[in-house]
Known about the structure:
With about 240 residues, the protein is an alpha/beta fold. The chain folds into two domains: about 10-90 and about 100-140 and about 205-240, Vaccinia Virus protein VP39 (Rossmann fold, 3-Layer(aba) Sandwich), CATH 3.40.50.150; about 145-200, Single Sheet (N-terminal domain of TfIIb). It has seven helices and eleven strands. The chain has helices at about 10-15, 20-35, 50-55, 70-80, 120-130, 145-150, 205-215; strands spanning about 40-45, 60-65, 85-90, 100-105, 130-140, 155-160, 165-170, 175-185, 190-200, 220-225, 235-240. Strands 3-2-1-4-5-11-10 form a seven-stranded mixed β-sheet, with helices on both faces. Strands 6-7-8-9 form a four-stranded antiparallel β-sheet. Strand 1 (about 40-45), helix 3 (about 50-55) and strand 2 form a beta-alpha-beta unit. Helix 2 (about 20-35) crosses helix 3 (about 50-55) and helix 5 (about 120-130) packs across helix 7. About 35% of the residues are buried.
Amino acid sequence: MAKAYRHLAEWFEYLNDDCDYPKWSQYFIDGLQNFGCGKKGLELGCGSGAFCRLLARAGFSMSGADNSPEMLAKAENLARNEGLRLSFYQSDAADLRVPGEYDFILAPNDVFNYLPPEKLLSAFKHAAKHLKRSGIFWFDLSSPYKLCEKVADTISADDREEVTYLSFNRREGNRIVMDVTLFVKRADGAFDRFDETHTQYIHEEDRVSAALVGAGFETVAVEGHLGEKKEGSDRLNFICRKP
């Protein structure tokens, strides 16, 4: 099967239209303002750049980084279509290499679930190198509860006029393997099939917190999705500061 997001990039935001990107982005905007952050930000694992575009429209100077060339191409196209001048860089979250330093780095929507536990410390250290002093590092993880209780050993499906999405999910030790199939409608009415594999790792909060300490971060808060209680939440938000 093809690597993750090789084919899904074209359809990612369309198929995730129920996640309410504007509300999710406002959660970050309000938090960053409360922390007194500057305006220069990087979205790590930016995908097709939804958060970059929304924060840019709110007055932030945004750049994005992702290791998928297909996602970056989509991000550049969407930003250009909206009249936004954003910078995008191809870089892996495990070994972040982008120009300059930032007031904050955001990594929403499961970015670090794609890294095995042994790579988290190095990844966090690389993020720290690109933050200014007192900069905010804010990322979320799909929680162990979500991955183990809601995703493992299930089938996800989304059937629409232009595209059908199927994901066959199984747990293998500390990871969830998702075999994704897309059926994309052609102009003649027939469908093309595309397959790719996604692997997400289950990260326990205490191990993530230990890696953050090892990378020199101070943890400001750990909370659930959009600030809800973390117990039973599908996501854990780690909000950290570089001393």
